[in-house]
Design a protein that fits this description.
This protein has helices spanning 5-25, 30-41, 46-49, 51-57, 60-83, 87-123, 130-142, 146-154, 162-189, 193-228, 234-254, 258-268, 274-302, 311-338, 343-353, 357-370, 375-390, 392-399. It is mainly alpha-helical. It has one domain (72-294, 312-399): Up-down Bundle (Na+/H+ antiporter like fold), CATH 1.20.1530.20. Helix 1 crosses helix 2 (30-41) and helix 14 packs across helix 15 (343-353). The two termini are 37 Å apart.
């Protein structure tokens, strides 16, 4: 008998929070525990051991319910992620970050193109061209998760240091670049090649309008709003949320993914403004507790470790992990040395930039949704995202003096 959708959501939240708490006690970001909780609920464990229970819990009605909640939640999460990007502060490290960020994108992207050329025949879906497949694999290896990295830095002695600011600047540039590349790929996939140029042109117009028209307008009206109140009214909170959803809808109409619009709308709002602080404070916990577990559950249902049954699959998966680490660590390390950093600082930066986290999973889900990734390759890339993120904390603690834990991540 199918379970009611709300009971499915309750189970998903309980498992996610419990696994997050366990990993937090092990010194890992709790969000990674929630991701693992979603995978445990999927066919890799619960679906394999208790198939009838899994079918009852994740019945078609519950899956539609979770999908709707997850899409809204990820849009709001990326909006909050955009709000957390402090552009003026990042500009202070921008000059030093140019070489590092470019190398930490270009090397893993190049390795991703090489990987795509080697696995295209065996792992690409039948109707996907090499261009979009290679671009997407390159993007998948190039991502650094800005939010998770910020929380890892907050628990270390690098918090608010020059090196920590440099890592955050590079991660922000990486994420913005990655979302632009995802926009290009979705534009190509969502239209015929003859009209893909129109989609990309409209995307450029949209981005320029947001930066040079909407952002200055927001900066002009915010001081007037902040003088009248120390806390946002419900109307202004609604305006911020509707603005993010409206921007997401607009990018969806243009032909690129809706998540890009939500992220960019958050990024153009001044980080230190009342609206940014208040919206983040009001939405962050709600999104983390209610919406993200639904996304983790859906990701877990798409991640099937039994698909990697043969030794060849695991060799390819291991190769993906090695290339991902070499690309990110090697790119950041080399870029830091070229920009004048010491070998120790360059190594620390390489460790930090290898963090992929939740942003990687969001991008991978887009790839699976668009049909660019097969379920098998999706599973391999999810494993890569987990391994590279989980190794960041232990490596950083090994390289730095121990620090007391702060808050939740």
């Amino acid at each position: 008998m199918p379970l009611p959708s709300f009971l499915t959501l309750l189970l998903v939240i309980l498992v996610a929070r419990f696994c997050g708490m366990v990993l937090r006690r092990w010194g890992q970001p709790s969000v990674m525990g929630e991701v693992l909780g979603g995978i445990l609920l999927g066919p890799s464990l619960v679906g394999a051991l208790f198939p009838e229970f899994s079918i009852a819990v994740f019945n078609p009605g519950a899956l539609i319910f979770l999908k709707d909640i997850a899409e809204i939640g990820i849009a709001l999460y990326l909006f909050i992620m955009g709000l957390e990007i402090d552009l003026p502060r990042l500009r202070q490290s921008a000059r030093s970050a140019v070489v590092v960020s470019q190398m930490s994108i270009l090397l893993p992207f190049a390795l991703g193109l090489f990987l795509a050329s080697r696995i295209f025949e065996s792992y690409a879906p039948p109707n996907v061209g090499f261009l979009e497949f290679a671009l997407f694999v390159g993007v998948s290896l190039s991502i650094t998760a800005f939010p998770v990295l910020a929380r890892i830095l907050g628990d270390s002695s690098l918090h608010r240091t020059r090196l920590g600011d440099l890592a955050l600047t590079c991660a922000a540039i990486d994420d913005i670049t990655a979302w632009c590349l995802v926009a290009v790929v979705t534009g190509i996939m969502g239209s015929q090649m003859t009209s893909a140029g129109v989609t990309i042109f409209l995307t450029i117009i949209y981005v320029l309008a947001m930066i040079f028209v909407i952002r200055p307008w927001i900066e002009r009206i915010l001081p007037k709003i902040e003088k009248t109140s120390e806390r946002l009214s419900q109307a202004l909170l609604a305006f911020a949320v509707l603005g993010a959803l409206g921007s997401a809808a607009l990018t969806d109409l243009i032909g690129i993914h809706a998540f890009f619009g939500a992220f960019l709308f958050g990024a153009i709002i001044p980080h230190d403004s009342l609206i940014a602080r208040d919206v983040t404070g009001r939405l962050q916990d709600l999104v983390a507790i209610l919406f993200l577990p639904a996304f983790f559950a859906l990701t877990g249902l798409k991640t099937n470790l039994s698909l990697l049954s043969g030794g060849e699959h695991w060799w390819v998966c291991g190769g993906i992990i090695v290339l991902a680490i070499l690309g990110k660590f090697g790119g950041a390390f080399t870029g830091a040395l070229l920009s004048g950093s010491s070998r120790r600082d360059a190594a620390l930066l390489g460790i930090l930039m290898n963090t992929r986290g939740l942003v990687e999973l969001i991008v991978l889900n887009i790839g699976l949704q668009l049909g660019i990734l097969t379920p098998t390759l999706f599973t391999m890339l999810v494993i890569m995202a987990l391994v590279t993120t989980l190794m960041t904390g232990p490596l950083l603690r090994w390289a730095l003096p121990p620090q007391p834990q702060k808050g939740d991540a």
